[in-house]
Write a structure and sequence with these properties.
Blueprint: H1 12-27, E1 40-45, H2 51-62, E2 66-70, H3 84-91, E3 97-102, H4 107-114, E4 119-124, H5 130-144, E5 150-155, H6 162-171, E6 177-182, H7 191-199, E7 205-208, H8 211-214, E8 220-223, H9 234-240, H10 248-251, E9 259-261, H11 282-301
Parallel strand pairs: 1-2, 1-3, 3-4, 5-6, 5-8, 6-7, 8-9
Phosphoric acid mono(formamide)ester (CP) is lined by residues 49-52, 123, 132, 263-265.
């Protein structure tokens, strides 16, 4: 049985299969409408979510399956002190596959050890968010036409942003990727990512503080929200929250075919005026998340099209 806990749990060829299947689902969704008939997905969300939980649920419903679960720790027996290990032992009797989001790094990994059904990490603390990475890769492949030969700017909270950590981990396996890391000093990527991922893989990267200076070089700009929930004090959050605001003026520095991605939710870091720019693709990106999760569920349940 396979779980998806880290983006590196999938080889490059498995990633390609998932993205290709997602592409086929987009072309002919009807072909997949009943492939998970009789199967159940449990969504175990100990932390808030709009896109990830609901796109997982939409994905399973689109495949003809059913969904059950909880959307906050408070509405589960975690509030009474139940461990993740005990919870997943029980849920394994109720569902065929589960997606888990948890504020503690490593909680979905623990669940996978005690589970008898596939466990998908739907975001663990500031660590990883592998299904957002699948969403991001599908978006880049479809809208940019390639997953190599790209200069990618990551901007905002690179310290706590798990979507950034996961996507960097996944992208180092593709050819000719240049990383431009744009953040204040306090929100730089963690040292392990710099040393054990970027430097260990000899990836070209630079760390800068001014977005406008690097905009003309970028093929993709991956904006991120400053992660209020991960800060130890509110003062630091307030000081850093508006470090970068992408607006129409800054977009003038960008290439005509540069794409702006954002895992969402967005707070202030992208002005609403950018939404109408054809290069702003973050709402399309959220839509692709449903198709790639349909593909992932099929792969983990080893379900074939009818
Ligand atoms: N991108 C993402 O994880 O969004 P949610 O927190 O709404 O699930």
């Amino acid at each position: 049985m396979k779980h998806l806990i880290s983006p590196l749990d999938l080889s490059v060829s498995e990633l390609k299969e998932i993205l290709n299947l997602a592409g086929d689902i987009i072309k002919d969704p009807q072909k997949y409408a009943n492939v998970c008939h009789g199967k159940k997905l449990a969504t175990l969300f100990y932390e808030p979510s709009t896109r990830t939980r609901l796109s997982f649920e939409a994905a399973m419903l689109n495949l003809g399956g059913s969904v059950l679960g909880f959307s906050s720790a408070d509405s589960s027996s975690a509030a009474k002190g139940e461990s993740v290990a005990d919870t997943i032992r029980v849920i394994s009797n109720y569902a065929d596959i589960c997606a888990m989001r948890h504020p503690k790094e490593g909680a979905p990994l623990v669940a996978s050890i005690y589970s008898s059904i596939p466990v998908i990490n739907a975001g663990d603390g500031g660590h990883n968010h592998p299904t957002q990475t699948l969403t991001d890769l599908l978006t880049i492949q479809i809208l940019k036409g390639r997953l190599n030969n790209l200069t990618i700017g990551f901007c905002g909270d690179l310290k706590f942003g798990r979507t950034v950590h996961s996507l960097i981990n996944a992208l180092v396996r593709y050819d000719n990727i240049n990383f431009v890391l744009i953040s204040p000093d306090e929100l730089k990527i963690p040292a392990y990512l710099r040393e054990e991922v970027l430097e260990a893989n000899r990836m070209p990267y630079k760390e800068v503080k001014v977005l406008e200076n690097v905009m003309p070089q970028l093929d993709l700009l991956y904006m991120t929200r400053v992660q209020r929930e991960r800060f130890f004090n509110e003062e630091d959050y307030i000081r850093l929250k508006d470090s970068f605001i992408l607006d129409a003026k800054k977009m003038e520095y960008a290439k005509e075919d540069m794409l702006v991605l954002h895992p969402l939710p967005r707070v202030n870091e992208i002005s609403a005026e950018v939404d109408n720019d054809p290069r702003a693709v973050y709402f399309k990106q959220a839509k692709f998340g449903v198709y790639v999760r349909m593909s992932l569920i099929m792969k983990l349940l080893e379900v074939e099209p009818c």
